[in-house]
Design goal:
The protein has seven helices and six strands. With 194 residues, the chain is of the alpha/beta class. It has one domain: Flavodoxin domain (Rossmann fold, 3-Layer(aba) Sandwich), CATH 3.40.50.360. It binds flavin mononucleotide. The site of flavin mononucleotide has 20 residues, from α2 and β4.
């Protein structure tokens, strides 16, 4: 499966090369369908607050063809909720009390038809936000047999920190090494352009 993930990254680069070529010739190439692994039955489930992780999720969807699903908290996060300098804010409380599980809306996935789950999120406090833990708890039965690739966006924190907390919190899941996308949308594009 590690090989599959590497294939995805290579496919992103390959797709980008196709796009650049198409732009240079000013010719639309609507047939540039990214095909990386027809056997991979995957879904991309992501949480985002300000949109960066959604961009990353869409980039992955472009090369995998996977269904993309946004994880929605029952109670959306306001800007006050994500004020990490306020000790009383929702995000700080959910960080300090690791048992908290903010309710989420059900996700529309036929888990029986897929074998790989990409889970995307913004790094909050060097780790996954509590809503991700809610998802991992609520869908334990559906996820336990799947291959799981986490991915994140952050200002600077590496994916390895969330990789560690996810493995520690959910040791029975089949985790693969995650991928961090840069937080700035322009940087994401730049990363793909490399
Ligand atoms: C509550 C909160 C905590 C954060 N903690 C970190 C952190 O520990 N390390 C980091 O690099 N970025 C941190 N960030 C920045 C986000 O990870 C980054 O802006 C991310 O790309 C946002 O993704 P989104 O637009 O999908 O919500 C934090 C942001 C918020 C709102």
């Amino acid at each position: 499966m590690k090989l599959k993930f590497i294939k995805i990254i290579m496919a992103i680069l390959a797709v980008n090369a196709v796009v650049l070529t198409a732009c240079a010739s000013k010719t639309a190439n609507n047939n540039a369908q990214p095909q990386i692994d027809k056997d991979m039955k995957s879904v991309i489930i992501y949480f985002t607050h300000s949109g960066n992780t959604e961009l990353a999720a869409k980039d992955l969807a472009a090369v995998t063809g996977a269904k993309i699903i946004r994880l929605m908290p029952e109670q959306p996060y306001s800007s006050e909720d994500v004020d990490w300098v306020n000790e009383q804010s929702r995000c700080t409380q959910e960080h300090l009390d690791q048992s908290l599980r903010p309710a989420i809306k059900p996700v529309d996935v036929n888990f029986a038809a897929i074998d790989t789950v990409f889970i995307g999120f913004p790094i909050w406090w060097h780790e996954e936000p509590a809503v991700i833990r809610t998802f991992l708890d609520n869908y334990r039965e559906q996820l336990k047999e799947k291959v799981i690739y986490p991915f994140c966006t952050s200002y600077e924190s590496p994916m390895s920190e969330a990789d560690a907390t996810l493995r520690k919190g959910y040791p029975d899941y089949n985790w693969k090494t995650g991928l961090r996308f840069p937080a700035d949308p322009d940087q994401i594009k730049k990363w793909i352009d490399q």
